[in-house]
Write a structure and sequence with these properties.
CATH class of the largest domain: Mainly Alpha
Helix content: 40-55%
Shape: globular
Structural class: alpha+beta
Bound molecules: flavin-adenine dinucleotide
Strand order of the largest sheet: 1-4-5-8
Radius of gyration: 21 Å
Largest sheet: 4 strands, mixed
């Protein structure tokens, strides 16, 4: 690895410059209108009576996504030949870091495709589905959800109960998915179901389900520590899907689910570096203003050590992501089949970042004293968010399993 391998490329820098401009010109006015209407922001979004994200907050996010799509900023990670930005893994890490650092907890976050956006798994869809779902997703015109987890099955993916059975050339899906992000709003659901019980990693398949399809229904909100009104349950009651809605081939579901999950795992690098830097800057600034014993707390060694620990955690997590991505870039992080060296590297990025960011968020609260406990403050929200990160897209224990498997394989 040479320093140029991890430097910001001109392409990534161009994305960052365009995003900076977009944030100031197009996102800020939407944020200000939301705040004026008393609907909160992404730190503290208003919820509706059913506990879901308030429709007006959701619509503000959608507006940002559509504008971002039109500006060519929404899916920089997606393949260029399909209409995405075609950025590589290291370029995406830099771009994500800039989006998170500059947006803080504002609506700018919605400008970069997230779990509701296009993803490496859906890129394997049929030509028909590309026109119906993928192209609008790439433009930010519709949103998606990834439905893998069930009430009694999370980490143990192959034990899922949702089934799809063949009927002529169609497939009929039945089962219930739980803990699904964007369950209340998604236009299309990427659902993983059992198509060949007992076939191990070939037992699952991925389907695209239209949210208007007969038999599909959305369940209640599942209130989480995030308090964002975005997580819920989805019911599939004999939902019929045509063969054009199979993603990849029958039997590819496990590999496709892992492609989606690995994409989420890798985003942790830029996310934790961007938010980590933001929290450190806010802590430094607070420590310069807040006084104890007649002088700013920044003069106290105890507080300086908290700042030093935050800097150390952000630095080592960022460095881990960039070095691991340098090794991953030639292997491909979403390839099917995936190179056997990739899972350890991907899990290193997620684990090191999730754990470091949790310590950063904890110190960010501690530096502020009671102010850090203020409900709805960025520090309080990011502390809850950091706690959450250690569970979705594979728990920290599951990451350690993958790292250990990689280490033992090397032997
Ligand atoms: C806010 C939020 C959003 C989410 N969004 C989505 C989504 O959009 N789509 C989706 O499909 N899912 C989503 N999930 C679900 C998430 O992916 C699962 O919660 C996660 O994979 C863990 O599964 P589980 O909750 O069933 O825990 P379990 O798998 O039951 O694990 C319980 C505990 O046992 C440990 N454990 C389990 N198996 C092993 C093992 N083999 N080795 C070591 N330790 C193990 C775990 O690490 C954990 O500590 C979301 C979850 C949350 C909280």
């Amino acid at each position: 690895m040479t320093p140029t391998d991890i430097a910001i490329s001109p392409r990534a820098q161009s994305y960052i410059d365009r995003f900076t401009h977009f944030l100031a010109e197009q996102v800020r006015p939407i944020e200000e209108a939301l705040a004026r209407d008393g609907l909160g922001n992404l730190t503290n979004p208003r919820l509706d009576e059913a506990g879901r994200m308030h429709p007006a907050v959701w619509e503000a996010r959608r507006q940002v996504q559509r504008l971002s799509g039109a500006a060519g900023l929404y899916a920089p990670y997606a393949s260029a030949e399909l209409g995405g930005g075609g950025l590589g893994l290291i370029e995406m890490n830099h771009a994500t870091e800039a989006v998170y650092h500059q947006s803080g907890l504002g609506l700018g976050l919605a400008a970069l495709g997230w779990t509701e956006g296009p993803n490496p798994a859906i890129e394997h869809c049929s030509a028909e589905a590309r026109e119906q779902w993928l192209t609008p997703l790439l433009r930010g015109e519709i949103t998606a959800a990834f439905a893998n987890t069930e009430e009694s099955v999370g980490s143990d993916v192959l034990a899922m109960g949702t089934q799809a059975r063949r009927d002529g050339s169609d497939w009929i899906i039945s089962g219930t998915k739980a803990w699904i992000t964007n369950a209340h709003f998604a236009d299309v659901i990427q659902v993983v179901a059992v198509t060949e019980p007992g076939a191990g990693t070939r037992s699952l398949s991925m389907f695209l389900v239209d949210a208007n399809a007969p038999g599909f229904s959305r369940g209640k909100d599942i209130p989480t520590i995030l308090n964002d009104g975005l997580t819920g349950t989805l019911h599939f009651d004999d939902v019929r899907v045509p063969k054009e809605c199979i993603v990849g081939e029958i039997g590819d579901g496990f590999a496709l689910a892992m492609a989606w999950i690995n994409w989420r795992r890798l985003c942790r690098g830029g996310m934790c570096a961007g938010w980590g830097k933001w929290l450190l800057e806010r802590a430094r600034s607070f420590a310069g203003r807040r006084e104890s014993g007649g002088r700013p707390i920044a003069h106290l060694q105890a507080v300086q050590h908290m700042l030093a620990n935050m800097d150390m955690d952000v630095y080592q997590a960022r460095a881990t992501a960039l070095v691991a991505l340098t090794e991953l870039e030639p292997l491909g992080a979403y390839a099917m089949p995936l190179d056997h060296r990739a899972p350890r590297l991907i899990s290193l990025v997620k684990l090191v970042n999730d754990e470091a960011f949790f310590r950063v968020a904890d110190n960010a609260v501690q530096v502020r004293g009671a102010v850090g406990m203020l409900l709805g403050s960025p520090e309080e929200k990011l502390f809850r968010l950091a706690r959450n990160l250690r569970i979705p897209a594979g728990t920290t224990e599951i990451q350690r399993n993958a790292i250990a498997r990689g280490v033992l394989r090397q032997a």
